[in-house]
Give the backbone structure.
Amino acid sequence: MGISGKAIFESLKNAGAEIFLWDDKLNDQAYADYKLEPTNAKWQEVEALVISPGIQHQGANAHPLLANLSKTCKVFCDVELFYQCLDKTNKTIAITGTNGKSTVTALINHILQECDVKSQMCGNIGVAVSSIDIHSGETYVIELSSYQLDKLINAKFNIAVLTNITSDHLEMHGNMENYIAAKTKVFNGQVRGDYGIICIENEICNSLFNKLNRENIIPVSRSSKLNGGISFVGGNIYDNYFSHESIKFSQPEILNGNHNSENIICAIAACLARGLNLKDIIEAISSFKPLEHRLEYAGTHQGVKYVNDSKGTNFDSTRHALTAFSNIHWIAGGQAKEGGIDGFAAYQKYIKHVYLIGSSQDDFANQLGTSIAYTKCGNLENAFNLAARNAMAGDVVLLSPAAASTDQWKNFEERGKAFKEHLLKLRVN
């Protein structure tokens, strides 16, 4: 009964469904009349069980309640329910990937609205699909996690975008093969007139593109001019799939870095697939503002730039942040993910000092070894204050933890807001 659970409950209740709920940590009296202990439920009478995306529903580590329920009722998540409510006039654009999906989702939605296409943004980006009003003729831009995709049954999307795949969430999926299979479900059920978009810069995605081998799967690239695809190379956007035209494009500073080049070309491809004009798409990008906590420019103090990349919850995401700047005072650490900060040495030239925080600080220190200066700070406040003292004009203080936040925070948003609050205090003092 988190953001999505409460939205599902309200939506189904308003629709007149007979609904019961269970959350082992829920004590809110507003839901008292609807709570039902799972052991007391007559499952043979239940048509569907809508579960939180974060609950494992299959495999060795499946929630014990769910082990046999699929035999008696449908088990899915809110996105499947949302799909069932759409009509033929609605268009869906689904975006997934290990990294970049939130920026691509927000950029697509921004472009559509700037080009007078009625759209709403929802899903894993923080707006539960069950909480939005469905209107005839609207386009829905949906960010999807692997957890959500894994729980889909019949849902399909008119346009599906895959940004990249690297190792993540293996504690949920069990192994890399299962994780890749979950991500690939974004293309399930597509028919003639639907489009899949895959950024082939990533080795796994390049292999997937070759494996899928369908006419309506469009490759995109920031490093190669593709025949039959869409590319962003040498300051030009090349559309060699739809209109076969090219246009000059200067990447905005607020979307700097190779990872944002990939995000941009994914968004452009999706909007072309939606029927927009390339020139209009390029013009719309110029007014886009990056999402909070994703390489977010927080401000400058005494010539030092402060950047909040709290969404960098694994090293694959953080490495993009490290290449976007130089003279970096890097704040890293939290609840470590598999691999930790393996591969940091390739980005060492951009880093002046590392400030370690959270439960991973000892493991990260071992991975850093003696090749780079670091300080164990324990928490974000200590790390921020020390970095602010050490940084000189022209330097960058970067929060990009390469780890989850749940050892010390509720979520990455709370962690990012704390970073910005420390900057406000610094300016006042």
